[in-house]
Structure formats: C-alpha cells, structure tokens
Amino acid sequence: MQELLLHSPHDEARQGEAFSPQLPRAHSYQKHFYIESYGCAMNFADSEVVASILQESSIGATTNIEIADLILINTCSIREKAEERIRKRLTEFRRLKKQNPSLIIGILGCMAERLKGDLLEEEKLVDIVVGPDAYRTLPQLIEEAATGQKAVNVLLSREETYADISPIRLNSNGINAFVSIMRGCNNMCSFCVVPFTRGRERSRSAQSIIAECETLFNDGYREVTLLGQNVDSYHWIDESQKEIVNFAQLLEKVADISPLLRVRFSTSHPKDITDDVLFTMKKYDNICNYIHLPVQSGSSRVLQLMNRTYSREWYIAKVNRIREILPDCGLSTDMITGFCTETEEDHQASLSLMEYCKYDLAYMYFYSERPGTLAARRFEDDIPLETKKRRLQEMVDLHRQHSLQSMQRDVGKEFTVLVEGVSKKNNAELYGRNDQNKVVVFPALHFKKGDYVKVSIHACTAGTLIGTAIV
Ligand code: SAM
Ligand code: SF4
Ligand code: F3S
User: What is the DSSP string of 303-334?
Assistant: First the structure.
C-alpha cells in the first residue's frame, strides 16, 4: 500500500497502522494513558479529543506503554482485515495485563460501536468499550472499570460534535492539523459500515471550527485539513447571525483567517461537490488545489448496486468540470474491486475510468463484506478471493503507471512548498508538500519548518519530487 504520510488528510494507508502519541510537552500526572489509533483521519482527530477529555480528568498521555495505567485502542471496522489487526494487537497486551492486573484496557471507535458489549465476551482482557459519540463519558467509565466492573457506552448521538473541546495535538509536527467539521454519514453506500458505526451526519458549528483554526494558526500551524466523511454536505444554521453556512462558505471563512494558512479538506462525495466549492478554491491561493473524489467503481451497474447515486458518465462530467475550473488540480480516488456480481467487463470499466482520470493518487481495496450493511443483507459476496485480488493487482499496476507519469509531468515545474520537517533520509534536506499534495524534497539552505519555499523540480521518484529552492 501507499507510503505512510503522517499528515496526509485521508490516508487510508493508515488503516491498520498504529500511531502512538508524540507529546507536545512533559506533564506530571499521577495516572497515564497510552493511545493507539487505527483507521481514517477522523479516528486520529478523535484520539486528540479523547486526550483532551482525559487530561481534563488529570490523566496524562504517555508514549511509554510499559508505564501506562490505561491503554486505549481507537479502532476501525472498515474492512475485516482492519479488525483482525486490532484483535492481534489486543493479544499483545496480555503480557502487560499479567504484569499489572490493575491495568485498564479500553476499546474506542468504530469496532467498539459495531460489536458493542459482545467485545467484552470475545476479548476477555478488555475492560471498557466506548463508541465514537460517548467519549465525554470516558472518565466515569474509567472509574467504573477501576472497581473491577466492565464498562460500556456505545450510544450514538444526533448532536454530539465535541465542538467545545480543544483537541490535544498528538503526533504533531506543529505545522499540519486535522480539524473535524462534521461527524457521521447519511449516505448508505451498500458496502460501507460507517453509517452504522458513526451514526447520523451532523455539522459542527462554524464559529467553533474557525476558532480552532485561528488558534492553530496563532500557535504556528500552517495547514489545516477539514475532515468529514462527506464534507460537501456541511450545513450549519447559525441562529444568532441568522445565517446558513454551507461548505463553500465555511472554506471561505477558514481561508480568510490568513493567506499563510493552507486549507485542505477530505472527503468529497462526487454527488455533492458543487461549482461553488470549485470557484471558492479558485478564488483563494491558500485553498489547496487537491480533491479526493472517491469513485469506487467505473461501472454504472456496479455503482448502482453500491448505492453511490451517480453513474460513470456523471462522475466523468464532474471530473471534466474540476479540470475546467481548476486545470492544475490534483485528483485522487478510492476504488473497490470484486464487489458483489462484478464481471470482467465491470472491472475493465473501472480500469478504463482510471485511464481517463489518471489519478495522482488512488487508494485501492478488494471488497470485504461487512455484517449488517445493505450489501451483506441483499447480495451474495460471490467473487472469489483470488479474482478480487487479481483485479486489485491489475488496478494497482495501472495506477502505478499513472502516478509515475503524474510525477514526471512535474519535472521542470516550480511549486510553492510548505516545509514540514527535515528529510528522514538526509538531514541536510527538508521535505514538505506542494499545493497538489505531492511530497517535495530539497536542500535545506537557510529554510526551516513552517516556511513557504519556491522550489524548482529537476527529478522525481514514484513518490517524491526532488528540487532546489529558488532564492
Ligand atoms: N466517505 C468516503 C467516501 O464516500 O468516499 C470514504 C469513506 S471509507 C472510510 C474509505 C474507503 O474505504 C471507501 O472510499 C472505500 O473505497 C473503502 N471501503 C469502504 N467499505 C469497504 C468495504 N466493505 N470493502 C472494501 N473497501 C471498503
Ligand atoms: Fe461510507 Fe458512503 Fe458514507 Fe463514505 S459516503 S462513509 S463510503 S456510506
Ligand atoms: Fe474506519 Fe471508522 Fe474511519 S470504520 S475508516 S475508523 S469512520
């Protein structure tokens, strides 16, 4: 799968990858929690909310699992493999629990929501199970667990957005931050477990989002990624101002904070992204020219079974519109191979769509049936695993050509790069990303993290543009 970029906005490569916190400063708490996060960027953002809630209750974060009083694992259910990895990780905690019987182990997030109390039966060493909308109750649940009881809260909410909580930035490089703008999802893509694990869609107040972004900017952050499963359906009614804020307007408000604050967002649903959003992106230099526009399949028949509510032609028209309004916009997608009834012809349609769109980045998966979803209830998971995997490999091979071509097209061009840190391979070099989300490496000279640097590209690898600063 793709290279792991810590601050990539919708890095599905993260699914199944764990991150433990790197903390901003030392704390002197009596009790400590250790948290690992799996899944999408929203889960990572949630772990930062959890850290804030626990710190308010005088439980500080630690990166040292051996000294933790509480181990939390923020889980993902999107595919079977994601859950398998979490179960495997849990078995590794057995040793710690044996050494320290008062150690509390909690499962948070989507797997907690999906399996609820059953998790306590299945995974005997788990003490706490908390769903994504119940994090405010964690301190009470921890108290209950400390008395030897098992504690569960998986209630979903129609209102909870954690708007008033200032996330504690874990894993932070001090430059990029995720900002949740909404929760849940009202779409019912037939393959997807998210509406069941995250509940109904709700938007967070525009004021609280802007306040969080302003604070981040004042603290030295230079890029925010606005997060939601379907950001284009953001909708906030501000009763006091008698104003309705849609996603294009929210983007504008965040971009207005400072021209030095880059704004990214993820994920856009093809049916909802509007011309207004595209024109707002065009109007503001600091809104990055990059759209993650998952298509899932290139076959209209399969798209219909997936309940994506658009056809191949409709999607292509949307891509054409993006290219017309934003000619240099980076474009990425998610694809699924081997969905129920998918024929070779459908698969070829997916490949030809990729050929047409020539994505800069693609996250590709083979279909994994999720219990309770529409597809699991209505259709047979009838494509043999070898076929799913073979089609996936063909797709990955094709995309590799496109992404390399996309990198090669940038050789000879100049980009403004926001510096994110010192290159891991060579500490005389810096790395950052351009507007289109591509990683750029160049000799450091006098530049430092947080600077915007004009870089001329003279070479590339499959994942990196290599250049020199124009001084
Ligand atoms: N909300 C986003 C959207 O509509 O595109 C994406 C949400 S999901 C967290 C990320 C990706 O996981 C999806 O775009 C899809 O490609 C993939 N995915 C979701 N359910 C899946 C399943 N059952 N099997 C394989 N891949 C799946
Ligand atoms: Fe899942 Fe579809 Fe919602 Fe994305 S839009 S989270 S794929 S149901
Ligand atoms: Fe996974 Fe839940 Fe995100 S299922 S992809 S962590 S919304």
Answer: HHHHT-S--HHHHHHHHHHHHHH-TT-EEEEE
